[in-house]
Amino acid sequence: MYNIIWVLLTLLLYVSRVIDSMSSDRIKVLKSILAKERLLGGRDKRGKLHENDPNTGFDCCPTVLERISPLGGLSRDGKLLQLYRDTNTVQKFYEKSCAPDYSYAPCRFINQTVYESRCVQQFTYMYAIVKDFNVTQPFRVDYIKVKSGCTCKVLRERAMDL
Ligand SMILES: *[C@@H]1O[C@H](CO)[C@@H](O)[C@H](O)[C@H]1NC(C)=O
Ligand SMILES: *[C@@H]1O[C@H](CO)[C@@H](O)[C@H](O)[C@H]1NC(C)=O
């Protein structure tokens, strides 16, 4: 019994230390990545929904194209990177996300009685001027993770009860 309490206390202490060790800067960058906060010039215009274009056909998973100017990003091995930025230079990217209603939702045009399907966010890696976060080292060119589209995955064929 006392053992369990001891373990819990140690765990709590560890968690609070981890949170303390994150500087406020790091938390700001993390938040900006997670909340997709658009800095400088405020929020970009809302992305246009790319659908219902008879020339290019209809997407089973509609997407939204947005121009973002993030403060930080994730490397190929999931490390936090800080993007280079000064008053004259802001790195911008075009990001294609699953449309809000379609993120991990069943694909359009797929008969749901026959197939279980999901719209799944796709990613790619783009070159950017970055450095590892929170270390004093020169900037370098490296890959950051960027949303690159939304694809329809068929998970399984539903068993037909005839
Ligand atoms: C979906 O598939 C089922 C079974 O084959 C069929 O009965 C139904 O009519 C289909 N629905 C549509 C919208 O095509
Ligand atoms: C980040 O920087 C702060 C202040 O410079 C330092 O106290 C902290 O240990 C650093 N954290 C990491 C994970 O390097």
Oligomer: single chain
> What sort of overall outline do the alpha carbons produce when their principal axes are compared?
flat
Average residue pLDDT: 81
What's the story with the biggest beta sheet? Answer: 4 strands, antiparallel
Rg, nearest Å: 21 Å
How many H/I helical runs? 2
Which strand order does the major sheet show? 3-4-6-7
Point out poorly predicted stretches: 37-45
Bound molecule types: 2-acetamido-2-deoxy-beta-D-glucopyranose
What structural category do the secondary elements indicate?
A: alpha+beta
Q: What level of helicity do the residues show?
A: 10-25%
- Give me the count of strands: 7
Strand proportion? 35-45%
What's the order of the H and E elements?
HHEEEEEEE
Structural description of this entry:
Keywords: Disulfide bond, Glycoprotein, Signal. It holds the Pfam family Spaetzle. InterPro entries: Cystine-knot_cytokine, Spaetzle, Spz/Toll_ligand-like. Residues 1-21 form the signal peptide. The chain is of the alpha+beta class and 162 residues long. 19% of the residues lie in helices and 36% in strands. It has helices at residues 2-21, 24-34; strands at 48-50, 63-68, 72-74, 80-83, 93-98, 115-132, 140-157. The strands form two sheets. Strands 3-4-6-7 form a four-stranded antiparallel beta sheet. Strand 6 (115-132) and strand 7 (140-157) form a beta hairpin. It is flat. The N and C termini lie far apart (55 Å). The model is unreliable at 37-45 (pLDDT under 50). The chain binds 2-acetamido-2-deoxy-beta-D-glucopyranose (2 copies). One 2-acetamido-2-deoxy-beta-D-glucopyranose binds next to loops.
